[in-house]
């Protein structure tokens, strides 16, 4: 355990997780100091929080003061090869993630969920199911509230449904979730891992690194990379699969979902009981069903909770239907694999909005699906030209300067029965603050039609 009381702790990054970490440190009677390279104007909403709490901070640089500390908490947006992190390592300063700090100060049971795609939906669904079944459960992590924001509020008999990214897992120490879920592993964020898929995939394995025989590991048997990169572990393994029976875990057979444990099998629900759209969401729901059954939740309550879960904002979110044209906000689709799942969710012809800050995308993964389903692509952002060059020989592509332009054009060109889908396959930072901001701009433009 890291001693916080009366210790100097530097926090690198003054946005959501960094500010929450600093506030937690202060509550634990530590001495936080927050440092961010961005200027104060860009961080103004977070700076107001720090000022309100009386927490010392600096912006626009990482001064020598950041190294005058016992521990350094590194926010997930800060690469491990950033000069401030490299120098701290050289000085022998203990480095941890915000998730690690929160975990060490949380009494509750953690259900940690990672994967390239589906984390947010699955984490939200997990919280919904457990709360519906009578177990007080907090939803936090890489979604909504930072873990540090709620860590001290969780009692021993309560749960945390925790979304964790590879960035957060890179600097764990004692982090040991009661249940860990790996949904899938596909290429993403390779720019943070020296363009090495192996390094990215291996970072995901940290989620169960500290688990023992009293803990649970829930894995997607349909994703070859999950199985390929699986390391030796002590936790009890459960699997979920759309394609084959499993001895321990959840599987689909004739549109019926079953759970099996130690040879005993139980029918849980029909696929039609899962309200959220798409085969990938059936898979996500099975991961949650595994966790729910492992912890002994009531079957009827599980089914009712699946029937009432509406999904999450910015993930295949129906914004509006106008004259039979559906406008769908999938702004959280920040990689090509997410777009593949999104396109697979629609039988209707699609006007697809692609583009943003490219992360080394390989669009060949969705080429056949685009040719099959997409009437036209609207390309936006700094990757627009790359998208145009890749797709224009196979499907109509038009470069647009803004989402407002796209929405107006799509309304004029789409017809009844068509879908206008924002599923960008890219990060948002070339045009927007984050994917939420991008989604909000899209929704506002649609609502103004």
Describe this structure in words.
By secondary structure, the chain is an alpha/beta fold. It has three domains: 8-97, NAD(P)-binding Rossmann-like Domain (Rossmann fold); 106-308, Mur-like, catalytic domain (UDP-N-acetylmuramoyl-L-alanine:D-glutamate ligase); 317-447, Mur ligase, C-terminal domain (Protein-Tyrosine Phosphatase, Chain A, Alpha-Beta Complex). The protein is 32% helix and 23% strand. The chain is built from 16 helices and 20 strands. The chain has helices spanning 16-27, 44-53, 83-90, 98-103, 119-132, 147-150, 166-169, 197-204, 224-228, 279-294, 299-308, 336-344, 367-373, 384-391, 403-413, 435-447; strands at 8-12, 31-36, 56-59, 71-74, 94-97, 109-114, 137-141, 159-163, 179-182, 216-220, 236-241, 249-253, 256-261, 264-270, 317-322, 325-329, 350-355, 374-380, 396-399, 419-422. The strands form three sheets. It has a nine-stranded mixed β-sheet. Strands 15-16-20-17-18-19 form a six-stranded mixed β-sheet, with helices on both faces. Strands 3-2-1-4-5 form a five-stranded parallel β-sheet, sandwiched between helices. Strand 2 (31-36), helix 2 (44-53) and strand 3 form a beta-alpha-beta unit. Helix 1 (16-27) packs parallel to helix 2. The longest helix is centred in the middle third of the chain and has 16 residues, at 279-294. It is globular. The mean pLDDT is 93.
Structure summary, number of beta strands: 20
Rg over alpha carbons: 22 Å
Largest sheet, strands/sense/barrel: 9 strands, mixed
Classify the secondary structure makeup into a structural class.
Answer: alpha/beta
Give the oligomeric state.
single chain
Strand order of the largest sheet: 7-8-6-9-10-11-12-13-14
Name the beta content range: 15-25%
Provide the residue-averaged pLDDT.
93
Question: What is the CATH topology descriptor of the largest domain?
Answer: UDP-N-acetylmuramoyl-L-alanine:D-glutamate ligase
List unreliable stretches of 5+ residues.
Answer: none
What is the end-to-end distance?
55 Å
What is the architecture of the largest domain at the second tier of CATH? 3-Layer(aba) Sandwich
The tally of domains stands at: 3
CATH class of the largest domain: Alpha Beta
Q: Indicate the overall shape.
A: globular
């Amino acid at each position: 355990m890291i001693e916080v009381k009366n210790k100097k702790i530097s926090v690198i990054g003054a946005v959501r997780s960094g500010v929450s970490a600093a506030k937690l440190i202060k509550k634990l009677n530590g001495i936080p100091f927050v440092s961010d390279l961005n200027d104060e104007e860009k961080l103004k909403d977070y700076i107001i929080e720090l000022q309100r709490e009386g927490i010392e901070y600096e912006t626009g640089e990482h001064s020598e003061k950041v190294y005058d500390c016992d521990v350094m908490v590194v926010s997930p947006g800060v690469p491990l090869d950033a000069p401030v992190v490299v120098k701290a390592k050289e000085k022998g300063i203990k480095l941890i993630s915000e998730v690690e700090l929160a975990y060490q100060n949380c009494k509750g049971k953690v259900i940690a969920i990672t994967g390239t795609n589906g984390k947010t939906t699955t984490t939200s669904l997990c919280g919904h199911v457990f709360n519906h079944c009578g177990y007080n459960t907090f939803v936090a992590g890489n979604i909504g509230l930072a873990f540090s924001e709620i860590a001290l509020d969780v009692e021993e008999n309560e749960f945390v449904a925790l979304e964790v990214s590879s960035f957060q897992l890179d600097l764990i120490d004692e982090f040991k979730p009661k249940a860990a879920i790996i949904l899938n592993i596909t290429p993403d964020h390779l720019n943070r891992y020296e363009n090495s898929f192996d390094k990215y995939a291996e970072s995901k394995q940290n989620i169960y690194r500290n688990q023992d025989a009293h803990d649970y590991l829930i894995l997607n048997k349909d994703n070859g990379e999950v199985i390929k990169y699986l390391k030796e572990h002590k936790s009890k393994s459960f699997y979920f699969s759309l394609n084959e029976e499993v001895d321990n875990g959840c599987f689909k057979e004739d549109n019926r979902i079953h759970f099996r444990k130690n040879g005993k099998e139980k029918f849980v629900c029909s696929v039609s009981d899962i309200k959220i759209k798409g085969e990938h969401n059936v898979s996500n729901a099975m991961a949650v069903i595994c966790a729910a059954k492992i912890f002994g939740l009531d079957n009827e309550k599980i089914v009712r909770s699946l029937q009432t879960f509406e999904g999450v904002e910015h993930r295949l979110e129906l914004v509006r239907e106008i004259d039979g044209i559906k406008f769908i906000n999938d702004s959280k689709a920040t990689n090509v694999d997410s777009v593949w799942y999104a396109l697979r969710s629609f039988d209707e012809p699609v006007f697809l909005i692609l583009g943003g800050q490219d992360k080394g995308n390989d669009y060949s993964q969705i080429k056949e699906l685009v040719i099959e389903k997409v009437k036209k692509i609207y390309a936006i952002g700094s990757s627009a030209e790359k998208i145009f060059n890749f797709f224009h020989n196979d499907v109509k592509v038009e470069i647009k300067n803004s989402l407002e332009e796209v929405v107006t054009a799509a309304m004029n060109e789409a017809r009844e029965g068509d879908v206008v889908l924002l599923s960008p396959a890219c990060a948002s930072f070339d045009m927007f603050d984050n994917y939420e901001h991008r989604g909000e701009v899209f929704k506002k433009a649609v609502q103004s039609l």
